[in-house]
Amino acid sequence: MTELKSSTNKMREVKVEKIVLSVGGTAEQLEKGVKLLKLITGKTPAKMKSHKRIPAFGVRPNLEVGAVVTIREEPIEMLKRMLTAIENRLRTKQISTNNFSFGIKEYIEIPGMDYQRDIGIRGLDVTVVFKRAGRRVGQKKAKKGKVPARQKISRDEIIKFMKDNFQTEFRWNQIKDFHSFVKSEMEDLPNDSIRLEKNNKAVEEQTS
Question: Both ends of the chain: CA-CA distance in Å?
């Protein structure tokens, strides 16, 4: 297994716990998705059933609406393949506490994958889950304990981990970029009234 850079404190060390690949669909489309997941991982996916009724989409309780497969052994190599499919670029809004997710539009973008006529062109979703030592204390059924907040892995920690170990590029969402631009422009203005006037003008131009 590839050695990854992380904290020198073993209890604070960030690790990739698992990678979850999933597809959505019903009937024939679901079966194609199941074939795709099995082709990528060599594992048999588990099908997911709906618990709700959504008439507009023809969804009823117990209808199979998706499939999922989890990679726990040697997840790093699988993660590298999935990142290659998206050119190793992520958006910060795709990251949350302990995990991040992204979509792959076409499976043929994954290294080693060729077009399959019986599957056609379709994509899949990828979720990467991180952990620290002691997390299982909060997951086990017997003698379950409380995991302190400091054991959770923040968004910034995940970004740093991915940059250090995978050289992943991150793109900020447009709204945050815009506000950062406005803030930098305002810092150069001489007084509050001019700052307010220029800020309002910038907002009007952005929303017009």
Answer: 52
* Entry pTM: 0.73
Give the span between the Cα atoms of 8 and 172, in whole angstroms.
29
CA distance 166 to 188: 37
> Which of 103, 110, 90, 95 shows the shortest CA–CA distance to 14?
95
Q: What is the CA radius of gyration of the chain?
A: 22
HEC string of 62-81? CCEEEEEEEECCCHHHHHHH
What domains are defined for the chain? 10-135+149-171 (3.30.1440.10), 174-207 (no CATH)
Q: How far is CA 96 from the centre of its chain?
A: 8
Over the stretch 46-87, which tens digit does the pLDDT of each residue have? 999 888 888 877 778 888 999 999 999 999 999 999 999 999
- What values do phi and psi take at 128, rounded to 5? -110, 125
